[in-house]
């Protein structure tokens, strides 16, 4: 299984390796600039089908995307169970996870929400927990880990060039505004949070108590109404 996955990743990397026909070199006063391709509306129109193919693939198999964009000298790799959990979170509307400690539940679920914001323009998701401070602390720690493992993902955030850890982080709030219009933030699961609308969320721990009904009422309004 591991050998097969490596072959798929290598094959994907080879197909994604740019060639002279696929790259438009920037020029200034007739002199070709050394850095990268220029992304223009004409360029996107010409390669629309090819780009859609890769976006569809990476949305369903986000672990392949992460393997490709990680630094060449990185030894970090997701475990098998983390890979299929990440795929499930990207593919299905409702996912309920019961897992032991050290499964990296928060890391994987926040990573999935982050990738949803990357691949789905205008996506609005949030993280919530028993308190807003707890949710903000967990989210900040995991976002920092994501930046450390996959530095290229920083460039998806507005203002990435101004900070090593782009985003708006505070004691009881976290807000990430993506360049494609998506938003990832922290929300309190209470009456004070009414009024906002979201497409998806992650709740760290569900404990069935007398307040559970109230929690579901608030979340239901945000997601489904």
Describe this structure in words.
This protein has 225 residues and is α/β, with parallel strands linked by helices. It has a domain at 81-224: P-loop containing nucleotide triphosphate hydrolases (Rossmann fold). Helices cover 44% and strands 13% of the residues. The chain contains eight helices and seven strands, in the order H-E-E-H-H-H-H-H-E-H-E-E-E-E-H. The chain has helices at 2-16, 41-46, 48-60, 62-69, 80-91, 105-119, 132-149, 212-224; strands spanning 25-28, 31-37, 124-128, 168-169, 174-177, 183-186, 200-203. Strands 4-5-6-3-7 form a five-stranded mixed sheet. Strand 4 (168-169) and strand 5 form a beta hairpin. Helix 3 packs across helix 4 and helix 6 crosses helix 7. The longest helix has 18 residues, at 132-149. The chain is globular.
> How far is the N terminus from the C terminus?
42 Å
Number of helices: 8
As a whole number of angstroms, the C-alpha radius of gyration is 20 Å
Structural class assignment = alpha/beta
Note poorly predicted spans: 207-212, 215-225
- Helical coverage, percent range: 40-55%
CATH C-level class of the domain at 81-224:
Alpha Beta
CATH-level-2 architecture of the domain at 81-224: 3-Layer(aba) Sandwich
Number of strands: 7
In spatial order, strands of the major sheet run 4-5-6-3-7
Question: What name goes with the CATH superfamily of the domain at 81-224?
Answer: P-loop containing nucleotide triphosphate hydrolases
Order of helices and strands: HEEHHHHHEHEEEEH
CATH topology of the domain at 81-224: Rossmann fold
């Amino acid at each position: 299984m591991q050998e097969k996955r490596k072959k798929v990743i290598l094959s994907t990397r080879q197909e994604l390796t740019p060639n002279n026909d696929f790259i438009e070199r920037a020029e200034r006063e007739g002199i070709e600039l050394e850095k990268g391709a220029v992304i223009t509306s004409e360029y996107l129109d010409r390669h629309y089908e090819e780009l859609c193919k890769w976006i569809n693939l990476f949305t369903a198999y986000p672990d392949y995307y992460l393997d490709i964009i990680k630094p060449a000298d990185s030894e970090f790799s997701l475990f098998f169970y983390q890979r299929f959990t990440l795929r499930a979170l990207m593919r299905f509307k409702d996912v309920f996870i019961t897992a032991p400690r050290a499964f990296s539940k928060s890391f994987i679920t926040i990573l999935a929400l982050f990738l949803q914001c990357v691949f789905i323009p205008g996506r609005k998701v949030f993280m919530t927990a028993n308190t807003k401070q707890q949710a903000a602390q967990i989210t900040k720690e995991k976002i920092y880990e994501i930046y450390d493992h996959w530095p290229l993902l920083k460039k998806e955030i507005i203002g990435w060039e101004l900070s090593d850890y782009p985003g708006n982080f505070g004691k009881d709030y976290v807000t990430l505004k993506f360049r494609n219009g998506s938003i990832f933030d922290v929300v309190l699961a209470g009456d004070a949070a009414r009024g906002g609308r979201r497409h998806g969320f992650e709740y760290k721990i569900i404990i069935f108590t007398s307040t559970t009904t109230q929690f579901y009422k608030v979340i239901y309004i945000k997601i489904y109404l």
